[in-house]
Amino acid sequence: MKKRNDHRHALYMLRSCVTFFLLIAFIITCCMLLFQSVLGRSLHITYTEENIRMAAILTMGNVIFLSLLCTAVDAVRRRFMVERPVRRITEAAEKIADGDFSVRIKPLHGLDSESGFDVIIDCFNRMAEELGGVETLRTDFIANVSHELKTPLSVIQNYGVMLKSPELPDEKRIEYAEELLSASRRLSDLITNILRLNRLENQQIYPSARRFDLGEQLCRCLLEFESTWERKNIEIETDIENDVTVVSDEELLPIIWDNLFSNALKFTEPGGVVSVSMKADGEYAVVTVKDTGCGISPETGKHIFEKFYQGDTSHASQGNGLGLALVKRVVDIVGADISVESEVGRGSAFTVRIDRRADEKAETHA
Known about the structure:
By secondary structure, the chain is α+β, with helices and mostly antiparallel strands. The protein folds into three domains: 2-100, no CATH class; 141-201, Signal transduction histidine kinase, dimerisation/phosphotransfer (DHp) domain (Helix Hairpins, Orthogonal Bundle), CATH 1.10.287; 210-365, Heat Shock Protein 90 (2-Layer Sandwich). The chain is built from ten helices and seven strands. The protein has a five-stranded mixed β-sheet. A hairpin with a 2-residue loop joins β4 and β5. α2 runs parallel beside α3 (116-163), α4 runs parallel beside α9 and α5 (214-223) crosses α7 (253-267). The model is unreliable at 311-320 and 358-366 (pLDDT under 50).
């Protein structure tokens, strides 16, 4: 394939040189004939046969010489100003096609600082950087998914083997069955979250705005975790303002609340406090979920919305690191904003602000 491309390129260059030579020869011939004709008429010169033959020979020689000179100059110009950058871009593109996204092209920095090739090279380098980032995310995502799938599958396999023992007491059999159910639920939740996040990131879910009572939705979502806070003896404090309505996607917002409530209860030790507040603040509805858990370090805070990132590995068995990534994606889709305040050992507070004015515009369009 490379030899074939080189052969085609050589033929193309030969055709280009011949075409350029003929064009220049025609232009120079026309110019010289015009000059000779005008000069003859102006000076009333009578040309003899020998003069015409000599002039024709000299003219043809000059035409050929000047045409070859222009062709050579143009060939040198094309080689350094066109062929070389095109070859560099082509070679880099072939490396990209082979999966090497680390390739970068150095700018030409020619006489024209705003040359078209420099613009193309800049766009190419930014494209390669974006592709490299996407490839890294894809590789990390596959590695993380494989790891997250392997853990519950190993649990299921191990307890499945132990359940086959005919001498296993009923008490142990029930215990192992519970562990199997727990692992299967975790596996189901992981797959559900992966599919949901994939649909959100590929814009296969679009917000369907309608007016509803945000306080009622928060209470419904919170009550779903009643068994969890009772089991851990966690105190729940609520300060939810009445009659605060928003126009947003009533099916997407619970993804935010469920994950924030789940994390707050997960990271709060038994006997701790989780508080949920919601109030209207001018043009915004502000929801804050606060806990007295382990808190988040500044370094961890930079990554909490990344897929599969788990700052506290001691709770890794209770989650898969996709919850806050889902929260961030839904927040972006509905046009809201989320912020975090946290201190290690003192707990965390997640605040979601929904722009009610923007929602009214969405309702009008709907």
